[in-house]
């Protein structure tokens, strides 16, 4: 096996060899050993925009599968998007498949008379984005969720929010939708749960969640309040409703970064988001006292599958024109999904 240093040298070598033909975007949750070689680092919204503008022949996407799919759809046919480890999926995106979503849509129409307007978090498969595009809906990310949901609410249709119930609930609540007007659809039991009358439902939340952000708890918040008086708590909106409500602030990856970076020296922060990002924020802000809201840290295992050996393997593949790890979304799916993606990008 190659040493860390040999691996690093190999990445630098291939980067120099391929020049502008190669572009390496990396999500903020990626490991430092990968991020050090990134041409761009960002959250999902920023990376989607950056890939759309990229003219590179090869895009070695350091992130998870749905992000690479999105990059493939937003770039042209000649550009090749590769994922350094094909097992880098997203447990949340796996919680909604297209058959389940179509069954839900049928049930809403036939049993409840609801012709929904679907919205999907970009953390979803290309097929789900295509379903949403066909029905006139939009994609969204944590960075523009308020804007997209607000726009959808103004159309006076019942929203079907896929696949993260927490982002959906937190966002809709912020926009004034009461909890009683939210129903939840369970794709396993294929049932819709709600408290009031059917005609009062404004949003149907898909019962999916992020296994990383669900690990931040009310217990964690109590402990921070007790052990670190004066410490401010900021969490990602993929955290549960109770946790977001009990925190001092919540926001997308980008917002968390902006809030902490612009905070005065000496301020104290507990952050509820992925471990690699929290560690990087701690390192980049030595003038502040920063901890993870959950003391055991919360790592996204699939994001962490992309490491230096996988990056080198991927780059070697490019040099050898061996594209086994290329991510390709078929034309038909892309056409429909692009409507939902472009709808999101036009709302910025
Ligand atoms: P953002 O990059 O949109 O903040 O999403 C967080 C996340 O969980 C990505 O998978
Ligand atoms: Fe998916 Fe959560 Fe990991 Fe993001 S952090 S890739 S939503 S499992």
Structure, described:
This protein is an alpha/beta fold. The chain folds into 3 domains: 4-89 and 303-329, NadA-like (Rossmann fold, 3-Layer(aba) Sandwich), CATH 3.40.50.10800; 93-209, NadA-like (Rossmann fold), CATH 3.40.50; 213-292, Rossmann fold. It contains 14 helices and 15 strands. It has helices at residues 4-18, 32-35, 44-53, 65-74, 98-112, 126-134, 145-153, 165-174, 218-227, 241-246, 253-262, 275-284, 308-319, 331-346, and strands spanning 22-23, 25-27, 40-42, 58-60, 80-82, 117-121, 138-140, 159-162, 182-186, 191-193, 203-206, 232-235, 249-250, 268-272, 289-292. The protein has a 6-stranded mixed sheet with strand order 7-6-8-11-9-10, sandwiched between helices. Strand 4, helix 4 (65-74) and strand 5 form a beta-alpha-beta unit. The longest helix has 16 residues, at 331-346. It is globular, with a radius of gyration of 21 Å. The N and C termini lie far apart (46 Å). The model has no long low-confidence stretch (mean pLDDT 97). The chain binds 1,3-dihydroxyacetonephosphate (13P) and iron/sulfur cluster. Residues 43-45, 90, 123, 141-143, 210, 238, 252-253 line the site of 1,3-dihydroxyacetonephosphate.
What secondary-structure arrangement, pairings included, does this model have?
Layout: H1 4-18, E1 22-23, E2 25-27, H2 32-35, E3 40-42, H3 44-53, E4 58-60, H4 65-74, E5 80-82, H5 98-112, E6 117-121, H6 126-134, E7 138-140, H7 145-153, E8 159-162, H8 165-174, E9 182-186, E10 191-193, E11 203-206, H9 218-227, E12 232-235, H10 241-246, E13 249-250, H11 253-262, E14 268-272, H12 275-284, E15 289-292, H13 308-319, H14 331-346
Parallel strand pairs: 1-4, 2-3, 4-5, 6-7, 6-8, 8-11, 9-11, 12-13, 12-14, 14-15
Antiparallel strand pairs: 9-10
The protein binds 1,3-dihydroxyacetonephosphate (13P) and iron/sulfur cluster (SF4).
Residues 64, 90-92, 123, 210-212, 274, 300, 302-303 line the site of iron/sulfur cluster (SF4).
């Amino acid at each position: 096996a190659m040493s860390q240093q040999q691996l690093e040298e190999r990445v630098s070598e291939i980067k120099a060899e391929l020049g502008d033909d190669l572009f390496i975007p990396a999500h903020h949750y990626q490991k430092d050993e990968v991020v050090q070689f990134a041409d761009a680092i960002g959250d999902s919204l920023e990376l989607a925009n950056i890939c759309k503008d990229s003219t590179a022949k090869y895009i070695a996407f350091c992130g998870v599968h749905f992000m690479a799919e999105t990059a493939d759809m937003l770039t042209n046919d000649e550009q090749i998007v590769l994922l350094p480890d094909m097992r880098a999926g997203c447990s949340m995106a796996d919680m909604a498949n297209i058959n389940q979503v179509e069954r839900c849509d049928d049930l809403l129409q036939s049993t409840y008379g609801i012709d929904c307007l679907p919205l999907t978090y970009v953390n979803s498969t290309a097929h789900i984005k295509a379903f949403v595009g066909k029905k006139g809906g939009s994609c969204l990310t944590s960075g523009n969720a308020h804007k997209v949901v607000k726009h959808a609410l103004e159309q006076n249709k019942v929203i079907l929010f896929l696949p993260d119930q927490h982002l959906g609930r937190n966002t809709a609540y912020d926009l004034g939708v009461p909890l009683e007007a939210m129903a939840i659809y369970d794709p396993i039991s294929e049932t819709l749960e709600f408290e009031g009358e059917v005609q009062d439902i404004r949003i149907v939340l898909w019962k999916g969640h992020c296994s990383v952000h669900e690990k931040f708890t009310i217990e964690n918040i109590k402990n921070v309040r007790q052990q670190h008086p004066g410490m401010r708590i900021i969490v990602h909106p993929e955290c549960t409703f109770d946790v977001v409500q009990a925190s001092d602030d919540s926001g997308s990856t980008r917002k968390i970064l902006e809030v902490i970076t612009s905070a005065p020296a000496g301020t104290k922060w507990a952050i509820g988001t992925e471990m690699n990002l929290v560690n990087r924020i701690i390192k980049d802000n030595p003038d502040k006292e920063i901890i993870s809201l959950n003391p055991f840290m919360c790592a996204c295992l699939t994001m962490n599958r992309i490491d230096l050996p996988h990056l080198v393997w991927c780059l070697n593949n490019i040099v050898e024109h061996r594209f086994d790890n290329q991510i390709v979304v078929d034309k038909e799916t892309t056409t429909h999904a692009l409507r939902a993606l472009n709808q999101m990008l036009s709302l910025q």
